[in-house]
Amino acid sequence: MKLVADRVMVDAAEAFGDFGDLSLVDGRSLAPSDLADCDVLLVRSVTRVNHALLADSPVRFVGTATAGTDHIDLDYLAARGIAFAAAPGCNARAVGEYVLACVLALHPARALDGLRCGIIGLGHAGSAAARLLAAAGVSCIACDPPRAAVEGEQGFVTLAAALDADIVSLHVPLRDDGPWPTRHLLGAPELDRMRPGALLINAARGGVVDETALHTALTAGRLRAVLDCWMNEPAVAPALLTRAEVATPHIAGHAREARARGTWQLRDALAAYLARVQPAALAGYPPAPTLELGGQRGWAAVRAAVRHCVDPLAQSAIFRAETARHGSAVFDRLRAQFGERREFAAQPVALPQGDPDTARLLQRFDFPVLTI
Question: Which helix (H) or strand (E) holds 76?
């Protein structure tokens, strides 16, 4: 069996090497010629998988080590009888941690208890963001029409109600059709409906927000924005790169544990497709070196621990400076660099004995606490 995988897929050799002949390629420049004798194609979000890529190939299984699938032409795969698997929820925790880090970074001098966040899309990532924000004292409401209609769940609010919040965080897939399309879900009318000074966080997909309308709102000083996703990645709109308070190269869900989780979910799916006995996956990576917080206590300790794992202001500064020098060529390089961050549960924190209140606060966000 011949397998082709994106070379930046974490643990690809360990997860798929025993299935057959594995070739690692550049996922962004993958061409039909790379798939001439390929049975299994394993990608990430940078590869468009469609008729143009697969028409003359023998590929019979496509997997993406991502939660999102808008880069995959699912109708084409179904029509060709090509099996497909994704990795839903693999990066949910990392996305939630990124959202929390951004909110903490942009509200450095105030408690979060009085803030209200509208979560648009309460799937895996939206739910993780809501849980972490709630743990920090933010009051969260959620808008999710598919869940409200299809699953009949209660407690969801309208889009207009979700937009009437101090923070609006987007966690929807990018869809052009169906009963709930999301392309340009937030256009000029929706952005105008947001509270003056509200913070918009897009950790979903670039096309969910009308970038022209958003630029107008940011230029007028009506809104603040955290932008992790862009319409034409790896190219980004220079004006938005300048105007956004946080601008990062699609890294919200790009923690080491999240990327590995996606790979191993795909291995499970491929093994099931082949009716193959699945050996145990890797136990995981060793914990990160212990973080010592010195004399910091309470919420100052939480903020320091979060910033140690993911520092969106520092990453924004690097992204802006490197893009100014080298253009879109830096996008994938910085994405890989920033993707080495660790999730909170993998980051031990050392505290002096006799500080149980700070320990409980840190444990609320899943940091392992060691006493010294």
Answer: helix 74-80
Quick check: 86 and 63 in contact, CB under 8 A? yes
How far apart, in whole angstroms, are the C-alpha atoms of residue 208 and residue 228? 12
pLDDT given for residue 110 in this prediction: 77
184 carries an active-site annotation: no
Name the maximum alpha-carbon separation found in the chain: 66
Domains defined along the chain, listed by start: 2-86 (3.40.50.720), 92-247 (3.40.50.720), 291-371 (3.30.1370)
Is position 205 annotated as part of the catalytic site? yes
Encode pLDDT of 248-264 as tens digits: 999 999 999 999 999 99
Angle, CA of 366, 371 and 372, to the nearest 5°:
145
**CB contact at 8 A, 288 and 346:** yes
User: Of the listed 205, 254, 259, 267, which one is catalytic?
Assistant: 205
Q: Is-contact 34 56, C-beta < 8 A?
A: no
State the pTM of this model: 0.94
Active site residue 233: yes
